[in-house]
Amino acid sequence: MFKKQKCIYCFREKPQEEFSLEHIFPDALGGNLCGTTFEINRVCKRCNTLCGLFVDGVFLKSWFAQNYNFESALLYADLEKGSPIPLIYGGILEELSSKTEVCEYWMGPCGEHIYYFHKKDDEYFNSYVKGDPIKRQKQDKGYAIIFGTTKNPFWNKITLLSFKKQFKNAKRYSGNFYLNKEAQQYFFHEPSEDIRRLIENIKKITNKEKKLKVICKEDMDNRFLCKIALGFGFKFLGEEYLNTPYAKELQKALWEPNFSKRKQYKIRGSGFFKSIDNLQLNHFLAWEGGHVILFKITPIGLSVSLFLFGKLSGHVLISDDHKLIKNSFLSNFKEGCLYILIPQRNICHGPIDLLDYLAHRLSGHNKLKELEEIESLKNDLSKLPSCHE
């Protein structure tokens, strides 16, 4: 007889072989750097796939997440070693799109012009950078054309490495980069006659003003926060947590696709774009260029706050069951504890006592060695080579 266990997302009992490893905090944000701290093995493969596509993806593949990711990467990427960085997503360029094909306009760190073409997807994926991620990996990988804007070898190296990584599955073509044969073959594919004609047509509009279309879902973040709360609730409060009324409310909200209906559930918190918290306090809690995950116990219950890219802050209640909360290791921290992640440097530190963290940020004394080490890795953007040199 096969042993069954309950998936923490769909609450259904399934055989053990139907489960897979889940990082509560997404890999795309550096969750894999935290080891077993944020890992659970109680998510079925079906939920893992669906959440990645329809919950995490809606937020992580948004215009906001992509472009905040560029800003934060620039601060901590090892640029001297030529580390690639995320590129800037402008939006859909309708002038070059058609009934069957979408043209996305991207930019590099020096304003390089990048045109990425792929087939139109289901309307649901209109708000996703690059569209349907499954199709981009397996079926229609698309093709990208890049036009450089600087002669600076430092930035050209960063740009080309970033271009190759950002569009690793796509066909990549040069609009005006002239490299030696070996480098040309490493970064670019050989264009067909149709692509050559397209490149010549694009050259005519590259330096003209562009009208870009950006689509964002108004509820891109709240299902994501519900999933985060469920994962951390199970991780820190245990099996009994899944049977609490509030956990069941989170589970229902996670799977409700209709925004209006989802608002009927009694979920406490505020999304990344509707934060009501004190902005000055957020300034001290967030870490420029990194992610902070803060756990705090209040009279209301246990909550988690995510400060992403040093820019966005989202908050959600994990549990209002004080008996379960009291028995968790988080109760050892009087005011709360946090973890700090710098994905560009493969760093995850925590748990850090909230009071120690604030003392480090607000005073000239009581410095934490691990945070000083992170600060020493931060790039001084004013000292980077100019794009115009």
At a glance:
Helices cover 33% and strands 22% of the residues. The chain has 389 residues and is an alpha+beta fold. Helix 7 packs antiparallel against helix 8.
Produce the secondary structure layout.
Layout lengths: L3 E3 L6 E3 L3 E5 L15 E6 H16 L2 H14 L11 E6 L7 E7 L5 E7 L13 H6 L4 E5 L5 H14 L4 E4 L6 H7 L5 H11 L8 E2 L8 H16 L7 H11 L3 H4 L6 E2 L8 H7 L5 E7 L4 E7 L3 E8 L2 H5 L10 E6 L4 E7 H9 L6 H9 L12
Parallel strand pairs: 8-9
Antiparallel strand pairs: 1-2, 3-4, 5-6, 5-10, 6-7, 7-8, 11-14, 12-13, 12-15, 13-14, 15-16
Helix pairs in contact: 7-8
What does this molecule look like?
The structure is a single chain. This protein has helices at residues 45-60, 63-76, 133-138, 153-166, 181-187, 193-203, 222-237, 245-255, 259-262, 279-285, 322-326, 354-362, 369-377; strands spanning 4-6, 13-15, 19-23, 39-44, 88-93, 101-107, 113-119, 143-147, 171-174, 212-213, 269-270, 291-297, 302-308, 312-319, 337-342, 347-353. By secondary structure, it is an alpha+beta fold. The protein has two domains: 63-213, no CATH class; 219-377, no CATH class. The chain has a six-stranded mixed sheet. The chain has a six-stranded antiparallel sheet with strand order 11-14-13-12-15-16, sandwiched between helices. α4 (153-166) links the parallel β8 (143-147) and β9 (171-174). The protein is globular. The termini are far apart. 37% of the residues are buried. The mean pLDDT is 92.
